[in-house]
C-alpha cells in the first residue's frame, strides 16, 4: 500500500520537525509526504535534514486557512491511501503499519490518541499533562459528539472521488463533517491503540465571545447539513466530562513512553550553541 501523508503547516517549524522525525522512524515508510505551507515561515530546511523522506513542499503565497490547504494537499496525493496529520502532532513508530493493516478491512481507519499539553525547552517539547482520548465507535453517537481523530487517520484516496473534498463552509468542523459523510456509505474502523499524540493547549479552548459566535455559526451549518438538531459550542474539556460522553469511554493500548521526540533540527541547534 502506498501511503501519502498530507500535512498542513503554519509557523510551526520546530513542531513540524518532530513530526518528520516520527515519520522517519516508521516501520512502514510513506510513499510521499506532502507539506502544504499555508503562507507561513519557510520549512525547506526539513527537506534537507531528512533526505531519506520523500518530502514535497507546496508554499502558498496567501493564507487560505487549514481546510483549503488540506484540500490542496490531498489533491496532489498519488498514493493508494491518504494519511492526514497536523503539524504539531506526533505518530508512534508502528502507526503507519498498524493503520495500513486496519484499512485492508475498511475504507477509513482512525486510532485513539493521547491529548497532551507540552512545554518547550531548548526547542524540544516535553509533556506536562496527558489524557487518553479513546471512545467506542458508534455511528449514532458520532452524530452527537465526534470521537474521530483526523490526525493520523488513514483512508482510501478514492473516497474523495465519491464524496468530494473537505467542506470549507463548516471550517472548524471539517473533520466531523468528513467522517459523517464517509459513514453514510463506507466502512469506518476504529483502532484501539493510542498511536497519535495530539498536541492541545488549554488556552486555545478559552474562546472570546466573538470567536465563540463565529464557531457557533459554523456548527449551525454542520447541524443543518446533517440534520443533527441543535448543537452548542462547548468547552472541550468540560464536554468530555459529561455523563453521555463518559459512558462512551473505552480501553486502549498506550504505547508512547512519554519521552520527547528530538528532531534533527533541535540536535543541530543544540550543537550550534
Task: Describe the overall structure.
With 273 residues, this protein is of the alpha/beta class. 33% of the residues lie in helices and 25% in strands. It contains ten helices and ten strands. Strands 1, 2, 3, 4, 5, 6, 7, 8, 9 and 10 form a ten-stranded mixed β-sheet that branches. A hairpin with a 2-residue loop joins strand 6 and strand 7. The termini are far apart.
Would you summarize the structure shown here?
This protein is an alpha/beta fold and 273 residues long. It has helices at residues 13-24, 44-49, 66-76, 95-103, 159-163, 174-185, 209-226, 236-240, 243-246, 264-272; strands at residues 3-9, 32-37, 55-59, 81-86, 90-91, 108-121, 124-133, 154-156, 188-199, 253-254.
What proportion of the residues is helical, as a percent range? 25-40%
Estimate the mean pLDDT confidence.
93
Low-confidence stretches: 204-210
The helix-and-strand class reads alpha/beta
Query: What gap, in angstroms, lies between the N and C termini?
Result: 42 Å
| Total beta strands | 10
Shape: globular
Number of helices: 10
Proportion of residues in β-strands: 15-25%
- Which sequence of SSEs, written as H and E, runs from N to C? EHEHEHEEHEEEHHEHHHEH
Radius of gyration: 18 Å
Biggest sheet details:
10 strands, mixed
Amino acid at each position: 500500500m502506498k501511503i501519502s501523508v498530507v500535512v498542513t503547516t503554519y509557523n510551526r517549524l520546530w513542531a513540524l520537525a518532530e513530526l518528520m522525525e516520527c515519520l522517519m522512524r516508521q516501520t512502514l515508510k510513506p510513499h510521499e509526504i506532502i507539506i502544504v505551507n499555508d503562507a507561513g515561515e519557510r520549512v525547506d530546511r526539513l527537506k534537507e535534514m531528512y533526505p531519506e523522506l520523500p518530502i514535497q513542499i507546496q508554499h502558498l503565497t496567501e493564507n487560505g486557512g487549514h481546510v483549503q490547504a488540506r484540500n490542496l494537499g490531498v489533491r496532489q496525493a498519488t498514493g493508494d491511501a491518504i494519511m492526514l496529520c497536523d503539524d504539531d502532532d506526533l505518530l508512534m513508530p508502528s502507526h503507519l503499519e498498524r493503520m495500513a493493516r486496519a484499512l485492508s478491512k475498511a475504507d477509513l481507519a482512525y486510532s485513539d490518541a493521547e491529548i497532551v499539553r507540552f512545554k518547550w525547552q531548548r526547542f524540544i517539547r516535553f509533556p506536562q499533562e496527558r489524557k487518553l482520548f479513546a471512545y467506542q465507535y458508534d455511528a449514532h453517537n458520532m452524530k452527537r459528539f465526534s470521537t474521530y481523530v483526523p490526525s493520523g487517520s488513514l483512508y482510501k484516496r478514492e473516497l474523495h472521488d465519491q464524496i468530494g473534498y473537505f467542506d470549507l463552509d463548516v471550517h472548524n468542523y471539517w473533520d466531523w463533517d468528513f467522517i459523517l459523510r464517509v459513514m453514510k456509505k463506507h466502512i469506518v474502523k476504529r483502532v484501539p491503540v493510542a498511536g497519535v499524540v495530539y498536541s492541545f493547549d488549554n488556552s486555545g479552548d478559552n474562546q472570546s465571545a466573538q470567536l465563540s459566535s463565529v464557531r457557533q455559526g459554523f456548527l449551525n451549518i454542520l447541524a443543518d447539513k446533517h440534520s443533527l438538531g441543535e448543537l452548542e459550542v462547548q468547552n472541550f474539556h468540560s464536554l468530555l466530562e459529561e455523563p453521555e460522553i463518559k459512558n462512551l469511554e473505552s480501553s486502549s493500548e498506550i504505547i508512547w513512553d512519554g519521552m520527547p521526540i528530538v528532531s534533527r533540527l533541535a540536535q543541530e541547534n543544540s550543537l550550534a550553541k
